[in-house]
């Protein structure tokens, strides 16, 4: 769909004016995201303009295959979009990544079921935004535990749909979504880890806001707390258990898309730091070799190229959502992509800040890096890296890591 626009390529292609070209049809929405990024961050509001532009450009349904009524974009296409949008606005990039990760779950696990397939066709046509409801009070941030369970309707209830009530601690852009993918126990007597995913359409649920989103970064994601009250027919629960969906699709796709958007945020920080260093150099008339800040720029670029190499390798190993290949990727590798890229990008932006000096430390001006740093601090703590590493520690004692497969 689009031409590749990786970090290394984007840096190499940077024009003399200091701005980098963005790939194909994503260029317009990415520019809209960038134009509104400061206001979205300052006001802590949903990036409505960017999402409308993505909808208009037909990018929200990009992962839906042609056989299901979509354009048939690849996961790499979605990563490039997240990169390009996040380069302008981290919050808009995160909204896009979360939406694509949920769409990927539907695409990979809808099977022949009519309801999710009809939803996907409609989502492409109308540009519907899909949100994730895995978080819940009382499960300690563990995706693989649910307390919420469907209550069957009473025998004399004319509406024979089940009731679901979930007290979610965070639903990104919950108030702005058209549909939800919600994890719940299979039945009232099921174990907490025996979960299924429910697809709730616009008319199936109500949200009651129970907590706000006054955070230091990712302010535009509006990841507020809500009680979700839903009524849904049995056909709205995906037939594949959530354990398999989480392992095969939700977690790997989310980590891959997050990596793309985090690198996008850091790529913009690097552009800004480079511009700041070049500006100082012009004023002082010195040579690039001895310019203060350049070793930090080099260190930041090293981190980002390494992060991008990890992402490229993960994409190659994973393939497409729902493919046989995707089921073979090891959970430890999926986890390590997340922990490594979240920390590498944050560290890279720290290096950029030191390179830019006060121009980057200011919260205003073309070289300001505050938003980038604040947005990226969400990376190691959204699904905490310590918890992921604790899980990986157990996995490390299983099959040995696949080292030596360089290409
Ligand atoms: C920007 C953003 C968007 C989000 N969007 C959504 C969304 O759309 N839908 C959704 O459902 N959720 C969403 N979440 C919530 C997310 O899925 C997690 O539930 C949340 O990040 C957990 O936060 P917590 O700090 O309360 O985690 P906790 O699990 O309570 O962890 C708190 C701290 O305890 C430590 N810790 C926890 N477990 C372990 C362990 N096993 N070993 C060692 N240390 C541990 C870690 O240091 C961690 O930082 C979002 C979060 C963010 C930041």
From TrEMBL:
Pfam families: Acyl-CoA_dh_N
InterPro entries associated with the record: Acyl-CoA_Oxase/DH_mid-dom_sf, AcylCo_DH-like_C, AcylCoA_DH/ox_N, AcylCoA_DH/ox_N_sf, AcylCoA_DH/oxidase_NM_dom_sf
Annotated organism of origin: Teichococcus deserti
Protein name as it appears in the record: Acyl-CoA dehydrogenase/oxidase N-terminal domain-containing protein
Lineage top rank: taxon: Bacteria
GO molecular function: acyl-CoA dehydrogenase activity; flavin adenine dinucleotide binding
Domain Acyl-CoA dehydrogenase/oxidase N-terminal stretches: 33-124
